[in-house]
Each structure stands twice: as structure tokens, then as C-alpha cells.
Fold each of these.
Amino acid sequence: MKLISTIILIFIASTCNTPVEKKAKQKEILPVEVNAQDGLERAYFASGCFWCVEEIYESVQGVQEAISGYSGGNTENPTYRNHADHAEANEIIYDPETVSFKTLVDVYFASQNIEQVNGQGPDIGESYRSIVFYQNNEQKKIIEDKITALTNEGYKVAAEVKAFQKFWIAEEYHQDYAKLHPNQGYIQGVSIPRWRKFASKMPEVIKSSVRH
């Protein structure tokens, strides 16, 4: 009798666990790795307003360009007026011989309020949430090691860590916005102070030609 009961329990346990295991496997999302072009690689970050982030990264040695756009969601063809589940994000085009992905991650956390959930500064909502994207296991480990270090320092890190899938370029008028509109109210009141705060933390990575 005990033997039959044991067999039944084992069967029930295995039956219950199987769908959960399958469900877990189905949820796993593999990252998309973007190939280097002309020796330049690409990294992706979301950290509040993309105008601010673009300006920050374009001031970093080894970064050729930062492009504003949308990432982190599933909506096709997002726009500024309707990017739904995407966050404002930036594509960072950089020379790995000059600046490493690890340094870009350091820049990311040095240039934001690490603990702010769903926003940065005055920009509030899921569209402004912080996300660090990885394209392979090496990048994922770099990000996770940085978050572990920050956690050990006492920070409650708000940034999500996500497998990169796709980056959608934002409308043309968003590109180089801070550079083209240096006297605009938001740029003067938010972007420039945010950049200066970052620059004071990592002056060694700033291009000599950049001044504010």
C-alpha cells in the first residue's frame, strides 16, 4: 500500500513540475548580438530622457556617436507619440580599442540616479525607466558585477538588465538635440546639470574638446 502511495505521489509531482519547467524555458529570451562595423561596436542603454543620455555618451572618449531611439518593448515601429512599452534609449557607437563596454557601463551608472524607479530626474514614467541591455554573456556578467558592487555599497539599483532585441531610431528632430538647442529650457535646466554632475565623477573619460 505504501509503495503504491509513493508511486502516485511521484507521478503527481512530476506531472505538476513539467508544465512549469516548460513555461520557464519558453520565457527565456536570447539576446541579439550586433556585428561590429568598420571596427566600431554598438551598445544600448536606457536612462531617462534620451537627449540627456546622448549628450553624456558623445562626450566620452572613444564614442563616435550616440543615437536617440526606443528599445525594451515589443511594439513595432514606435514613435515619440506612441512608443508604448518601449523606453527612450540610446545606441552608442564606440571604438573598443579606446573605450571598453565596462567603461560604458560605469558611465551609465555614474550619470544617473541609481535608485530612481521608472524615471530620471523630472522625467517620470515607464518610458523613462532605466534598462541596461546586453548582447552576450560577457556583457551580462559585466553588468551584473557592476550591480553587485553598487549593491554592496548600499544602493538599491533600479535598472533592469535585459537581453537586447532591437533598437528603433527616433525621429530626426531628436538627434543631437542638446547640441543643436543649447539654450532650450530643458537642456539648460536638466541636461547640462546632469552632464556636469557626471563629468565631475569621471573627468578622466571626457573628450578634451568637450566643455559646458
Amino acid sequence: MKTLKSALVVSALVAMPVAHADVLGFGASIGYWDSDLSGKAAKGSDRVNVENDLDLSNNTEANLSAYLEHPIPLLPNVRLSYLHIDQSGSGELGTGFDSIPGGVPVDSSLDWRQTDLTLYYEVLDNWVNLDLGLTARDLDAELEVTDTTGLYPVSRTEVSAVLPMLYAAGRFDLPLTGVSAGITGNIISYDGDSVYDYDIYGQYVFAGVQLRAGYREMAVDYEDGDERLDIDVGGPFASVGFSF
């Protein structure tokens, strides 16, 4: 029965009517994200709070995206995006972490890079828009903690993975105004690990120029060997782009 239900779901997805662009379309944008960071990092049984112990400061992160849509039926549209989070801070460890004992002043930095390749279909394409697809996310993050006395080795916590994620994007257009509102999201949860990333925005388009502003939040709870990052990043963003 479970196999039959799965087959019916797959058949329904395959049979789902898919809209496609009448002409070839391309767009690109650059955005700035004023993000706050919270959460924990772990190496084995040692844990550190990135906000309270390391005092990692908020920062303005740049992100890039581009998409290609085409009129060829059954072939998915393509979206690429890139995000770089670079945050640093100075704090004091409340408890020992890795080889650094508690009570030691430390400098820290987080270097987070991710590239998304999304293949998607336009399920609806009128004043209500809906895209559904899959994202492959190449995630590479490193947290470095250095004690300011120089007495202890530098601690590095690294997570690297390529994650398959479900992708959905919905948008409501107010006809004849260029004004719209929407939400975009990626998500995966498997075997104790989970990643989600969403943004809610308002948008204005004129003469092919796209102005967008909203709120974005990303949460990663991922274990790579004995190293783990459980981090939330969130804050307002703004972007400018073009399409033709």
C-alpha cells in the first residue's frame, strides 16, 4: 500500500501541468543582507556559543543570483546563486573549547560560502506565480577560534557538503503596477541534520529593472564527522536586478 501511494504521488507530480515561458528569458541580481548570527558550534563534546562566547558581529553580506528560463517543454529552468558570509568578533570562552580552556580571551572568524544550482518548473505563470524544483547546495563553512595570548593552538571547525534541497517560490503580482510580493524557500531534513533558507519580500519592477526588499533567514544544523554547526542567520535584505 505504501508503494502504491508513492507511485500515485510520483504519477501526480509527473502529470502536473507545467507552464513555460513563451520566449527565452534571463535575469540577474545583486543583494545585500544585514544579517545577525546566533547558535552553537561543536567539536566532539565541546561546544561554544557563537553569539555569547565569540561575539561574532553582524555584517552586510553580498549575494549574487542569475536565472535562465526558456520555452522548451519538460526541460527545467535554471537558477544559480552565491552567498558569502564573513563575520568576525572578539570574546571570551565561558568553557573550554577544543584545545582552548575556558576564561581565555579569543578572536574568531566565520567564513561561510555556498553556491546553489536550482532546476525548477513554472507551475503557474500569470498574476499568481509558482515555481517548484530541486536545489543542489554546495556548502563550505569554517569557524576559526584563536586565543589572543598565543599559548594554545588555533581551533578550526569545518563543515563541507553538497546538499539536495526542495525548492519553492511563490509570487503575487498586482496587475498593471509592477508591484508584487513573494516568498522563496529551500529545505531539507534528514537523519538529524536539517537546513532551511527562506526570504519574504516586496518588489517593484520598471523597464526591466527589479528592486526588491524583505527579510531572509537561514538555519543550518549539520554534522560533519565530530564537528557540528547549529547556526541561525537572519535579517533584512535589499537587492537590485534586471531581466530581459
Amino acid sequence: MSFTRKMVLSVAGNKVVSGFIKKYGMRLGAARFVAGETLKEAIEQVKLLNRDGLVVTLDHLGEFVFDEHEAMASTQACLDVLDAVKASGVNSNMSLKMTSLGLDLSKELCLKHMRLILDKAREHNNFVRIDMEDYAHIAITMEIFDELKREYGKHVGLVIQAYLFRTVDDMKHLEETYENCNLRLVKGAYLESPTVAFPNKVDVDQNYLKIIEMHLLSGHFSAVATHDDMVINHVKAFVKKHNIPNDRFEFQMLYGVRPETQRQLVKEGYAMRVYVPYGNDWYGYFTRRIAERPANAFFIIKNMFRK
């Protein structure tokens, strides 16, 4: 992990900094990356994206709840997303973090909430992506996903992070166990120990291409989450070489990041999904975006001095 990224993530934990950004961040530029604080605002943004041929993943932001009431509120927010997608007719699925559903309180509580959400997804013929979180939650996340995948099949998928040493083994397990295993492949955005994750960017990049190729060749659906032209071009060449049809994979990018490239990929005939976060609890998500691309920090600073 780069020094700049480490610094940003460390500074983000400062109470003074976090207090300032939480108070003024949406006005200063966080709205570029977060589609509003309400579901209604987010749905309107999804409609605009759909009009340009982009499909969407909605994410009600939140993680690390501390009591059952908060966990149920987050669960209800997810149910509301699925109902709003159905009612509005927009082309969107959803993603979630299981820590927001009570994972740190108990596995049983989290499973109870996940089943409520996945029952709704199945009722509406939609899909729920479980985000992979920090390393401390990976083993329990894999355990719960295995249980839910057996119950809900095509209606549930998972995120896999390239920067972890264990990733290839996890993928082999998933690919060999399930007939239809839809995985979102990312590099990873958490601050992890070098005992469990590649500390150098070049190694993460190499492993990322490795798992993309591995999953594309497996016959399962691949969601390639990247803003990197090198990766995009590599995928284009790889699927052409191996005669992998376009309906077996999609590109994914974050809301507010490289919108012109997103639309260009649609024009070229590729499926392009935009990850659209919304909600009041946007600080953690936003700071990870800053850490990934420090130029985003200058965007915020510039807005601080605009009249």
C-alpha cells in the first residue's frame, strides 16, 4: 500500500477531520461520488444512468452497527431499495455490507436479516451482492455466503479482493462448489497487514489480472470492477482471444468516476454497471475513494475555496 493511501486512511480517523468532512463534505464535493442522502435522490440518479445505457448497483451506505435496532434499520433500508427498484422499473440490483446487518453482534442475527433481504430479492427476481469487508470479517463472510448461496442460488453474489493472499484459494472453492457463481472482482480498499495482503501495488495488480482471467475462463459470470485502462484493454483482448461472449461478464465502475469511459464502453457493446452509493453514513466510503486516488482530495480542497 502506498504511503499516500496509508496517510489518507490514517488522517480520516482523526475526530477533527472526520467531523469537518461529515459536516461539509457533501457540499464540498462528496456528492460527486455519493448519489444523495435519500433513496428517492438515488433512484433519480439511477434513471439518468439507465437512459445512457448503464445498469446500476445501489448501495445504502453503512457498516459496523452496534445494536439490533440499528441492524434492523439497515435491513429495512435494503428492503426499501429492492421495493423502490421494482416500483420504479429501473435497471438496478443492490449491494450491502453484512456488518451493517449485525454481523458483529451475531452470525444468527445477520443471517436472519440476510434472509429477509434475499427473500425480497427472489420475490422481485433481483440480485444482491455481498461486499467483502476487512480481513477480520472474511472467514465469517465466506461461511455465511456458502450457506446463503445454497439457499438462494442466482439471487446472491460476492465480492472478491485481489490484494489478499487467500483469494485464489477462495475463488477455487466457490467456482468448484457452485454452478452459477457471480463474483465482483476488485483490488481491495482496506488497510491490511502485510501478513495477509500483498503490500506492493505491482503484486496486487498482477494478482488482479490473474483472478480476472481465472474467473472468466471458469464459465461463471465475472464483474470486473476497474477504472484502469490497462485492465479494461486486457479484458477486451482476453475475452476476444478465448471467445468469451459479452453476456458472461461486465465492467463496473464507481458513481462519479470516469463517466465518459463508462458511456464509451456501452457504445462499444459492453455491459457497464455503475456502483451507486447513497445515504447519510457515507464518510467511510468517501475516505476510501480519496485514499485510492489522492487527486480526489485536491477536488475537495479546490471546492473549499470556490466562491
Amino acid sequence: MNSSKVWYITGASQGLGLTLVKRLLNDGYRVAATSRNAQSLKDAVGVIDTDRFLPLAVDLNNLDCIDESIRQTITAFGRIDVLVNNAGYGMAGTVEEIMEQDIRNIFDVNVLATINVTRSVLPVMRKQKNGFIINMSSVAGFVGAPGWSIYSATKAAVTAFSEVLALDIKEFGIKVTAVEPSGFRTGFLTQNSLAFTESKIEGYQAVKDTQERYLAANGKQPGDPDKAAEILIQLSENQEPPIHLYLGQDAYKRASEKLAAMTDELEAWKATTIGADFQDQN
């Protein structure tokens, strides 16, 4: 592995972002990492090595703040080889009961921040004529669960953005992967990472049952963050990384089942689908 590479990671003070930063620093990489509070990030990482670690206080809703963090990274390390758009949080509840401002807030963090950080990093990678962008999506962006419609919408947006971005920037030698994990023991279902609205409406039983099951599973998820971090590092060294990478057996199972169901549905409605075109006038 090329441990001289420079990584820029958002949302690094907890969860998978924190696990990844620690593993990279342990392996000798140079890392610029963002959080809302730089001191909290330093404390969480537990490593003060100004030669290889640059903790950055960044408001991901502020374009100038993002641009300044990129400038600081270039000043410190001279380049950015791998961008990991990791910042984000979950949202559970019914569409009827989640406040509009809360919906806007999660789109700002999960979607717009991913796009804006990418926009700021792309000129650097184009100049280098290489780079790798890892966008942390979720299997929920492809196969959602009851009560997670808003969160799933944000992650579907991240995945679609990644797919087309990969086409747009391929000519510059820049690669893109949307990483789509299932449940990992990262604290995702805790108060700091999940906006939860308990349904007060009669009915919505599928939503209520799913929420109860998910919350009960906190800390028992099958996904191992250390293994995920290792996979991301290996992925960064791959010359032909996938555009989609599902992580976890549950992610594989859910995605496989949906692909099969989509194929069956597509074929069942084929006549209707192609019947929407103009008929050949021969």
C-alpha cells in the first residue's frame, strides 16, 4: 500500500469515520479530518502528530468553510488523494410526522454537504490527474425499511450522484465508489446519529414494528467497523474499484433480492413500458 497518500475525511469524530482515521494514521497515511469541533476530534483520535494528522473544524453547511479546509489541507500536505464523504446521520419516522425543517436539515448534511465537498476537492484532483472519491451511502438508498423513507431518499441521492459523477470525471483519472453498508456497530442508532420521531398516529404498524426492532438491535449489528475501515483502505489501492460496494451480509441479501424482484417486475410490465414509444411508421 502507498501510505504516502493523503486522505480527507468528513464526519470523523465518531463512528466509521473515527475508526478509519485511527487505522489510517496507524498505517502511516496522512489524514485531514473534519468535525464540527476540532478539539473533540483530537480527543477522539488520541493522536497529535502534526506531520500526518490535520484536524479541521468545518461547518459543512458553509461553502467558504469547506473551501478553507481544502486550502489548509493542501498547505499542510500538498495534495488530496482520497476523499471520503462520511458525514451524515439517520432519520426515522413517518413522512406525516417529521417536520419539514428536519427534512431540509438531513438533506443539507447527507446530500448537499457531500456534493459541496466534492465540488471543492475536484479542482485539486483534476490538477493531479488522479484521485479517488468514496461517498458513504447506505443499502437503505436501494432497499429501504418502513419508517426510513427520508433517510433512504438522502442515500439514494448520494448513490445516484456517485454513479453519474463517475462518468463525468473518468477522463481525469478520478474514480468514484458509493459504499452502501447495512448495519454496523458504529453508534448509528444512538442519539447523536439518529433523529427519531415516534409515531403517534394510529396504524403505521409496519413502521412501528421496524423502529422497535432496529432500536433493539443497537450495539448488536453484525457489521464490524474495523473490517470496514480495512476494506476502504484496500479499495483505495484498487486500480478498478466498483461504482457500488455493498458491505455486510444483510446488504448483499437485501440488494440481491431487490434486483431479482425488479427484474421480474420489469419483464412483467415490458409490453406497457415499450408501448409508450411512437410506433414505427413503415
